[in-house]
Amino acid sequence: MGRLEHVNITVKDPKATAGMLHDLFGWHTRWEGAAKNNGYTIHVGEADTYLALYTGPDGAEGQREADDSYRTRGGLNHIGVVVEDLDAAEAAVRARGYAPHSHADYEPGRRFYFHEENGLEIEVVCYD
């Protein structure tokens, strides 16, 4: 049986995005360094899973805007993160200046979403 190990996404500033993920979800940097096409990557996550945060030599300038990923075949629609305390997670998201939206409570848990600086939508879910 297979399991998801990582997802590689292009961001403007890997260090800033990694810092946000450290603060909100308690993740840590597993590795960082030079990457393909003279870029830079930070791997941030947990022991067995992580996000690879990549930027090119131009800081991702000129990349396609992530404004409509649901209409792009192969586009990234959102990243889901499981937390133990949804209310505390929402307070942390608000404290960083993000606007939680699309709150829902259906099986298997409660959830909300927010968009961060790169246009990535993050789903935060708690399985009570």
TrEMBL record:
Residues 3-127 form the VOC domain. The keyword Protein biosynthesis does not apply. One of its GO terms (molecular function) is metal ion binding. This is Glyoxalase. Keywords: Metal-binding. PROSITE patterns: VOC. One of its GO terms (biological process) is L-methylmalonyl-CoA metabolic process. The keyword Metal-binding applies. SUPFAM superfamilies: Glyoxalase/Bleomycin resistance protein/Dihydroxybiphenyl dioxygenase. It comes from Salibaculum griseiflavum. It comes from the Bacteria.
